[in-house]
Write a structure and sequence with these properties.
This protein is an alpha+beta fold. The protein is built from 7 helices and 21 strands. Helix 1 packs antiparallel against helix 2 and helix 2 packs antiparallel against helix 3.
């Protein structure tokens, strides 16, 4: 992981990224080291482990954080996190910037975080920042309340060769975190926090300072360009907060490709070089995948649709009268209710679109196609059907859902062969010709819904009505 702090800061409000970091020489951080020189590099490592009767199991996730703390009238923090095991953020979500006020309290909500996947569900977890706010409170026997949390200094202890205050943090449910903060600086040396995921499963998140090093002006001057480029890139991508999808759209990929070229040069022989390399590789792969999907769309759009042999959840063939001579919207997705994770394939927006089309008297047939290889296995078919019905009930889906073990999807090209993920959206006009082919999720705004899909269908309706 990496954190950067600097004042005055040229960085935009927030940014994120991904990488692995070079090993830093372990250097003892003396009491005044946070204020010595223009900046300080801090490297943390940590883990997440599930608790079994209060005892941690083998860690299921490990992570690193590299931080550059830049001194001035106040401090700023930029960081990036590297994760291994049980899920991880995509590279645009691994970098961020935090500003501190005079009391070392973070300004705003952005911060270092992990993404942990437990039983198929993704859980974001915030990491402790390197600076403890209002460090003047740190005195022997001190205790205080801050919001819904109570802090109590219980003892002094040497951690990683540093004399630290041990601070117990409690909330309404009892003690849930222990911190070790250096006695004569606001530096957080170690933290342990209890997490709850799934159906009350308990975990412990541990994070400890591994090394610290003073950065001189020459080194800082070399670090600034890649940092600024990364921050500008994040701002330009304009990703939603806590976005978990790694895919970028065509416009974002174009922006990222240009930035990757600049980063490759700026980051040479710096801590950011592995990150720049990783971004460049990912962008290249996504562009290749996007090109393959574009080729599929070119192949199918304008052609007659393959025969629609649809089977319902009841195992009966769906009548061809439902789709013949009508505009048809096919939504190929996995429709699994377990794990039940957002964005649910955008089925909520699709259901609203279906109801709106009916109210506006559009002759449109929306069909969800649940793609699951288990449907082709007699021993697993029942489990697959239960999962589909669970999602159908949970979302109260009004349009019919057909089942597919993958055979029907393959007739439409199956973008998964290119490394893409479902959903696949296919729109047929009333003659059965494919007029729209899209792999992946639509870019949506809550008040607009599936605007791109609606525009396609409305255009077909108007053409059919001769308007």
């Amino acid at each position: 992981m990496a954190c950067l702090i600097r004042h005055p800061s040229p960085y935009p409000p927030e940014t994120r990224l991904l990488t692995t970091f070079p090993t830093l020489l372990l250097v003892s951080l003396m009491a005044s080291a946070l204020d010595d020189g223009p900046a300080t590099e801090l490297k943390y490592s940590g883990s997440v482990a599930q608790l079994d009767r209060g005892t941690p199991k083998e860690p299921s996730k490990r992570f690193e954080a590299y931080c550059l703390l830049i001194n001035g009238d106040s401090r700023d923090l930029a960081f990036f996190v590297s994760e291994q095991g049980s899920g991880a953020w995509a590279w645009p979500e691994r970098f961020g910037r935090v500003r501190f006020d005079a009391d070392q309290a973070a300004v705003g909500k952005s911060g270092m975080k992990l993404l942990y996947t437990h039983d198929g569900t993704k859980y974001p977890h915030v990491l402790r920042l390197p600076l403890f706010p209002k460090a003047d409170r740190l005195k022997e026997g001190a205790s205080w309340v801050d919001g819904k949390r109570r802090f109590e200094i219980t003892r002094t202890r040497k951690v990683a060769g540093r004399d630290c205050w041990q601070i117990e943090v409690s909330n309404n449910f009892g003690r849930n975190e222990t911190l070790w903060v250096e006695r004569n600086t606001p530096l957080v040396v170690k933290s342990e926090r209890r997490l709850f995921m799934g159906r009350g499963d308990q975990f412990v998140l541990t994070m400890e300072l591994e090394s610290a090093k003073t950065v001189d002006n020459a080194q800082l001057t070399k670090l600034k360009p890649p940092v600024q480029t990364l921050l500008k890139l994040h701002s330009a991508l304009n990703r939603a907060e806590n976005e978990t999808k790694p895919e970028l759209n065509a416009a974002q990929l174009k922006t990222a490709k240009a930035a990757a070229v600049v980063l490759a040069e700026q980051s040479s022989k710096t801590a950011f070089q592995p990150l720049a390399t990783a971004i460049g590789r990912d962008v290249a792969l996504q562009l290749e995948r996007l090109g393959g999907i574009a080729a599929l769309a070119k192949k199918f759009v304008g052609q007659k649709s393959p025969a629609l042999t649809l089977t319902g959840l009841d195992g009966k063939a769906m009548s061809t009268k439902e789709t013949t001579g009508r505009i048809v919207v096919l939504h190929f997705w996995d429709y699994r209710g377990d794990p039940l994770t957002e964005p649910y394939g955008q089925v909520g927006y699709l259901d609203f679109f279906n109801l709106q089309s009916s109210r506006r008297k559009f002759d449109v047939k929306v069909v969800g196609v649940a793609v699951d290889p288990r449907l082709g296995d007699r021993t697993q078919k029942s489990a697959a059907l239960r999962s589909i019905r669970k999602l159908q009930t949970f979302m109260n889906i009004s349009y019919p859902i057909a089942i597919d073990d993958g055979a029907l999807l393959r007739k439409f090209g199956d973008p998964q062969r290119l490394g893409a993920k479902l959903p696949l959206w296919v729109v047929l006009d009333s003659t059965g010709k494919i007029v729209h082919y899209k792999s992946g999720f639509y870019d949506i705004k809550p008040d607009e819904g599936l605007r791109e899909l609606e525009a396609v269908v409305v255009g077909l309706v108007r053409k059919q009505r001769g308007k």
